[in-house]
Amino acid sequence: GSSLLTGPEGLMAKERENLKRLKCLRRYRQRYGVEALLHRQLRERRMMATEGGGQQAHTTRSSQRCLAFLDDVRCSNPSLPMTRHCLAHICQDVNQTLFKPCVGSEDVPCAKPVPVTFSEEPSCPLHLRLPPPMYVPEPSLPVPEELEVPPAELYLSAAELQPTESLPLEFSD
């Protein structure tokens, strides 16, 4: 914008007015002086307060990893949002109420975390107990071994099927 004012030909009055408006719009709602200093300090205090919370805000990459240990080795999976454990180890957190371990079956025990539902025993898809089928097939009727042959008197012969009266030509096929 400032390079336009230094040109040899200069600006016309209308162009100068438009340039002045553009500069005013650029500075609109920007803080200057003491107001800008106080706003920056407030923003810094808010950042320090959220970082200092620690438990509520996970700001560093190390705090986003799961806290569970397997054979003295820390789990490297990312933690679930707002928690300190990954999906595989979320049941180790005693304060959480959204997941329960799968009860499994007598043959195959299972401890996979399953979201809590309205059922008493939440289970993973592998151990899900299906309800009994609602459709019960009707008993079939007994089929006779041999079908009875109807008497031959019920059938008409070809001679009996011939018309007895003479029909017009369009029906004589």
From TrEMBL:
<keyword id="KW-0496">Mitochondrion</keyword>
<keyword id="KW-0597">Phosphoprotein</keyword>
<dbReference type="GO" id="GO:0044545">
    <property type="term" value="C:NSL complex"/>
</dbReference>
<keyword id="KW-1017">Isopeptide bond</keyword>
<dbReference type="GO" id="GO:0005634">
    <property type="term" value="C:nucleus"/>
</dbReference>
<comment type="subunit">
    <text>Component of the NSL complex at least composed of KAT8/MOF, KANSL1, KANSL2, KANSL3, MCRS1, PHF20, OGT1/OGT, WDR5 and HCFC1.</text>
</comment>
<comment type="function">
    <text>Non-catalytic component of the NSL histone acetyltransferase complex, a multiprotein complex that mediates histone H4 acetylation at 'Lys-5'- and 'Lys-8' (H4K5ac and H4K8ac) at transcription start sites and promotes transcription initiation. Required for NSL complex stability and for transcription of intraciliary transport genes in both ciliated and non-ciliated cells by regulating histone H4 acetylation at 'Lys-5'- and 'Lys-12' (H4K5ac and H4K12ac). This is necessary for cilium assembly in ciliated cells and for organization of the microtubule cytoskeleton in non-ciliated cells.</text>
</comment>
<dbReference type="GO" id="GO:0006325">
    <property type="term" value="P:chromatin organization"/>
</dbReference>
<dbReference type="GO" id="GO:0005739">
    <property type="term" value="C:mitochondrion"/>
</dbReference>
<dbReference type="InterPro" id="IPR026316">
    <property type="entry name" value="NSL2"/>
</dbReference>
<keyword id="KW-0156">Chromatin regulator</keyword>
<keyword id="KW-0539">Nucleus</keyword>
<dbReference type="InterPro" id="IPR025927">
    <property type="entry name" value="Znf_KANL2-like"/>
</dbReference>
<protein>
    <recommendedName>
        <fullName>KAT8 regulatory NSL complex subunit 2</fullName>
    </recommendedName>
</protein>
<feature type="domain" description="KANL2-like probable zinc-finger">
    <location>
        <begin position="72"/>
        <end position="127"/>
    </location>
</feature>
<keyword id="KW-0832">Ubl conjugation</keyword>
<dbReference type="Pfam" id="PF13891">
    <property type="entry name" value="zf-C3HC3H_KANSL2"/>
</dbReference>
